[in-house]
Amino acid sequence: MEVNRVEKLEAAFKDAVKARSSALTVSLSAMINSNQRKIRQLAAENRLPAIYPRAEFVESGGLMSYGADRNEGFRRAAVNDRQNSERNKTCGDSRRAAKEV
């Protein structure tokens, strides 16, 4: 089912149940993102297991997500920045020692 307007969500879920759909994959769009609660509620009411594009859907009650962890990117950047700072500090000490000789 493809839904591009929030007014069509309930009918789409009814159609999915009528077609005996066994699960639901939710893709990310502005409409989906701004209607997370309604989509999760309709999936639960219609007993359709759903996989969502971001962890926020799961954190607020969805079954599972397949998207990247956005916080992980920030953690990796912080680790890389710290490693680069330490490396530059060490290189700076080596350069100073070489000048002194």
Task: Report on this structure.
The chain is built from 5 helices and 3 strands; from the N terminus they run αβααβαβα. With about 100 residues, it is mostly helical. It has a single domain, classed as Rossmann fold. A 3-stranded parallel β-sheet has the order 1-2-3. Strand 2, helix 4 (about 55-60) and strand 3 form a beta-alpha-beta unit. The longest helix has about 30 residues, at about 70-100. The N and C termini lie far apart (about 75 Å). The mean pLDDT is about 80.
How would the blueprint of this fold be written?
Blueprint: H1 9-18, E1 24-25, H2 30-34, H3 36-45, E2 50-52, H4 55-59, E3 64-65, H5 70-100
Parallel strand pairs: 1-2, 2-3
